[in-house]
Amino acid sequence: MNSAPIGVAILGCGVVGSGLVRLLTESGSEVARRVGLPLAIRGIAVAHPERPRPEWVDPSLICGDAAALVARDDVLIVAECIGGTGQARQYVEAALRAGKHVATANKELMAKHGHDLCQIADDNGVALRYEGSVAGGIPLIGPVRTSLAADRIERILGILNGTTNYILTRMTRDGMGFEEALELAQELGFAEMDPTDDVDGFDAAYKLNIVASIGFGRSLRLGEMHREGIRAVTAVDIAVAERLGYVIKLLAIAKRDEEERLELRVHPTLVPKDHPLASVSDEFNAVFINLRHAKEVMFYGPGAGLGPTGSAVAGDIVDIARDVVSGARARIRCTCQPHPEVRPIEEIRTRYYLRLLTRDRTGVLGGIALILGEYDVGIATVSQELLAEDDPASHGYTGPCSQIVIVTHPARERNLRRALREIDRLPAVHAIASTFRVEE
Ligand SMILES: NC(=O)c1ccc[n+]([C@@H]2O[C@H](COP(=O)([O-])OP(=O)(O)OC[C@H]3O[C@@H](n4cnc5c(N)ncnc54)[C@H](OP(=O)(O)O)[C@@H]3O)[C@@H](O)[C@H]2O)c1
Description:
There is one protein chain. The chain is α/β, with parallel strands linked by helices. The protein has three domains: about 5-135 and about 305-325, 3-Layer(aba) Sandwich (Rossmann fold), CATH 3.40.50; about 150-305, Dihydrodipicolinate Reductase, domain 2; about 345-440, ACT domain (Alpha-Beta Plaits, 2-Layer Sandwich), CATH 3.30.70.260. The chain is about 35% helix and about 25% strand. It has 14 helices and 18 strands. It is elongated and about 85 Å long. It binds NADP nicotinamide-adenine-dinucleotide phosphate.
């Protein structure tokens, strides 16, 4: 039996790459025992070889030519920890076409090009693994692909972005505004200096695309997903939601009905306080899945970081290496069916939270209720309060200002939007301050 180590190339030595190197270095003998053969890091490719690296990174392994490292004969597994869809994609494709297995934590790459890359992997009889790409250190892709593979997933609800969850947690606990909480997150290293990817929901959308694609066995297009970030969430809405028994979370939601029509959306959502996702705080991630047979399962843990994500990529490498040792090749192939019907956001039915600012006059609430009724939007709860002139909730409107908060019964989004356009034109209505969806 061949007892030569299995060669691993690591591309990138930032947060994820250095975490992976640390784990494979520190746990080398344990990993070798579990795999049946040792793994040998053949090289670590980086953009700036001269940059200092953590003390556990062997400087002799650092190199500047990722393409040459991937092409080495003694490399069988490539760990892509660069990020983005430029060179990372080229290296991944080159590795797969050269018959090498790939592990990656790159959600943007998998969300945008995952289907094509899985096809290339299948054509070449190699594995492409991406556990670290969704929810960092939380085992999710593996369980969905294997343990839950025979069941039918009906709904996936995810808190998939640690940065926004941290910001919303600070806003909820400390009454901070969005900007203040974002600044704090940046100071503490939970948010990038350019926070667009996180706060505008792109990152969560990439991750939902990946996990929903596996969960529903469908090749999904990012463009068909509805996406809203958390910039419109105010401290006032968080406080009002609190009083109503909800917390506001950036939820990634994927559903399928009996006719295989899907809903895919990322947006701020009111979640009842007694829902398991409501207590997922700070930078933590969680995914709650409804299944036909297993009913409800939830995955919870750290969604990012050096140790957690390094561990997820290392786990994929170990699993690939086990297949190599046992002689199995590309055991789990892509079985996604193409072209599901994804409902446009106007077609969904859900409950809504509405906060309106109006003049303090009699009959205003009645007028609003009448219009909602005309569009088949039923009111579940309603409250009205007169705001003090200096109340931040009044958004600077002068004169007696009323705040009307409505939670609706499930309604068609198209109807709600039409009703709100009419309500907005009522002379007594200052503004529709907020509209958020509610998920039970
Ligand atoms: N950070 C997390 O917690 C986390 C969690 C889940 C998933 N991810 C994903 O993991 C991937 C890596 O993220 P990260 O946070 O580790 O990024 P990072 O800290 O910015 O590290 C990127 C690494 O890639 C190297 N690099 C850039 N271009 C390269 C090239 N052309 N050839 C070789 N190396 C190159 C950089 O080299 P230099 O160091 O020399 O500049 C750096 O070491 C991304 O896809 C990200 O979305 C990250």
